[in-house]
Amino acid sequence: RLNTLEAENAELRQLSEETIRDVSLSKEQVAMLDKRASASNWTDSIKLKGDFRYRYENIDEEGKDDRDRNRIRARAHLEATLPDNVKVGLGVASGGDDPVSTNQTLGGGGSTKDLRLDLAYANWQAMEGLNLVGGKYKNIWYRPGKNGLIFDGDYNPEGVGVTYRNDWFFTNLGGTWLESDTKGANDSYSWGGQLGFRGEVAGAKVVAGAGYYNFDTEGSEVFHGDNDDFYGNSFACSDPTDPESCVYTIDYNIVQAFADVSMNVADMPVNLFVDYVVNDDADDNDTGYAVGVKIGKTKAARSWQLGYTYQDLEADAVLGLLTDSDFAGGGTDGKGHVLKGKYAVNKQWTIGMTYFMTETGEAYGFEHDYDRIMIDTQFKY
């Protein structure tokens, strides 16, 4: 019996030693895997996306020679997810310092092109549906039909913003600097808010709401561009021979009402929208509106969409600096038709055309036609 017990004890000791060795080896393997995982975690927390667009453009402005040009747009956006529901983003884009365009015209004998800071922000999700963002960030304002009546699609505000969304309600509040440096005594802070509702009516998805935006500009010089370029807005010069003496004559206190309706008609997506604005601080030329329809959606390969918009934007309805840079040559004081078509080669490659048939200059007594054709091919990644 003693010999049997000793043999069993010896076997147990050997088994215990092997188990300890296996556990130690497993710990080493786990530590190695953890080390490898931590080294690759940054790829899980950082996302990169962007796009590239090539554009041919023809401009036919009454009283001037036709203009043809080829342009590119390249954008890259890097976003990192941090602890405590914080995201930090950095974006770069082609083009110059235009606040509403990142297009770059080709030429200059093949010269190198500018690449500039387009986004730099921190976004904190304080609670479900509630986000606080600051820096230079993607435009938080809802744009019905993705139309640029108030804000061009390339405009990225600089300041702070708060957004809240749930299944049926949303609100956007924000403030942005037109100029933050007090050195030139031309500093101006603007702010605004939107209130909107989402729901279904007879099978159609409906978004409707209102907004108010305050741009404190009266007595201010231009915030971008030439000293006498007010993008269609009213201005006055104390010395008619000196463009540096020109200033805005009014503020832009813009009241907005909008609606967006999406539905399926014969299994085809259809979107209808209307956007209406009026500037409370202007005595005349104070109104603007856009109405449009889009049929189809370039969401999958070999899908297509067509769109039509009519827009009438009077000279002092909105701040011309920030409105659509393509419609009627950019800025305010324009009206006319926009026809669009787009085809998806695949989910990431689209080919499209936009045709503007517009008139501009009515408020200042030199109304003339301004037509533009844009043919685009765009790749997203």
Write up this protein.
Strands 1-2-3-5-6-7-8-9-10-13-14-15-16-17-18-19 form a 16-stranded antiparallel β-barrel. The protein is mainly beta and 381 residues long. Strand 5 and strand 6 (130-136) form a beta hairpin. The chain starts with a helix and ends with a strand. It has one helix at residues 2-45; strands spanning 46-61, 67-82, 86-94, 104-105, 115-127, 130-136, 158-165, 169-179, 188-201, 204-215, 235-237, 246-248, 252-265, 268-279, 287-296, 304-313, 334-346, 349-360, 368-380.
| Spans where pLDDT lies below 50 across 5 or more residues | none
Number of strands: 19
How many helical stretches?
A: 1
Q: Outline the biggest β-sheet.
A: 16 strands, antiparallel, barrel
Secondary-structure blueprint of this entry?
Blueprint (H helix, E strand, L loop, with lengths): L1 H44 E16 L5 E16 L3 E9 L9 E2 L9 E13 L2 E7 L21 E8 L3 E11 L8 E14 L2 E12 L19 E3 L8 E3 L3 E14 L2 E12 L7 E10 L7 E10 L20 E13 L2 E12 L7 E13 L1
Antiparallel strand pairs: 1-2, 1-19, 2-3, 2-4, 3-5, 5-6, 6-7, 7-8, 8-9, 9-10, 10-13, 11-12, 13-14, 14-15, 15-16, 16-17, 17-18, 18-19
Task: Summarize the model shown.
This protein has 381 residues and is mainly beta. Helix content is 12%, strand content 52%.
Question: What key phrases describe this protein's structure?
Answer:
single chain, 381 residues, mainly beta, 16-stranded antiparallel barrel, two-stranded antiparallel ribbon, 19 strands, elongated
